[in-house]
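Much of our argument rests on the idea that a fold can be written as discrete symbols. In the encoding step, the backbone of a single protein was reduced to a row of integers, each denoting a local shape. This step matters because it turns folding into a mapping between discrete strings. For completeness, the protein is quoted in full, as a sequence line and a line of structure tokens:
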Amino acid sequence: MTENKTVASPCISICALDESDICTGCYRSADEITQWSSLSNDKKREVILKAYQREKKVNPFLS
């Protein structure tokens, strides 16, 4: 993996926050979305992993 390449946003343009301030489209928190552009690539990868873990809790099709 190329470390210099910017990690792409996981946004899928379904932008709505639930009662816990988690986006129902990409599963990032409101804070994670706000801070995205200032995060390092490593931190962005951490956010994507956290978002995936959140999605797994509510999506029965992910294993």
